[in-house]
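Subject: Protein entry, chain in single-letter code together with its fold tokens

Area: Proteins and the way their chains fold up in space.

Attached in line: The record itself begins immediately under this heading.
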Amino acid sequence: MLKILATLAVLLVAAPVHGQPLPRDHGELRRLIVGARDAEGGSGKYAGRDVLRTLIAAGVQITAYEAFSVGQSMMFSQPVEAEAIMAPFFKRGELGAKSGAGPYEKRVWERVQRDAENDRQRGLASAVDYLNRPGAFTDAAIPVAESFLVLGSDQLALDLFRRALATEMLDQDAAATARLGVCRALLALGRVAEAQWELENFPPAPGYDALTRVWLAIAAETEAKLTSNPSSPPPP
């Protein structure tokens, strides 16, 4: 978190890419990110998920309620990511039997774990086979790409996001989350300059001006790490 805030402070010196300068205070940073979820005309589904991803990536502590709420919304479409989000809270006992809402949370968690394992074993591969059929590429590719990104199959995730966008069949909300997925996949691959270009040229979408500002700070930190670590592999 301190590194992200330091990076944001550096970015204050330069002209901001999107609107006003970024906040330095932890609480203000959280409010900036969370505010994207409630932007007028935005998507409660996609923006809410991207808000949580941005909070986590920026090192902002999320609550057990946030993790469970967003994870539950993902449990049928992308249980691999739902599992990754909720796992720390179940491990610490902040969700489940010790949390006071145990039975329901436990049932959800068991379902998420079972479906995530199924996706890892064969579900995602079957989904890719389906998406490779003519005309199958719609927003159905987005949860598949997100799942591969969580699993570290970053290039495959990038390809799926880009193929979905190339169909020009996504609505504004789906296109925005897919474009942010492209940026996140590029960062995971170490292709920081490409990610920065995508973020700086991000098409207008409700709430995403704030999110892309934060991801630009994350990109700057990623670039600094790659530059300072001689053992880091070169970008592909």
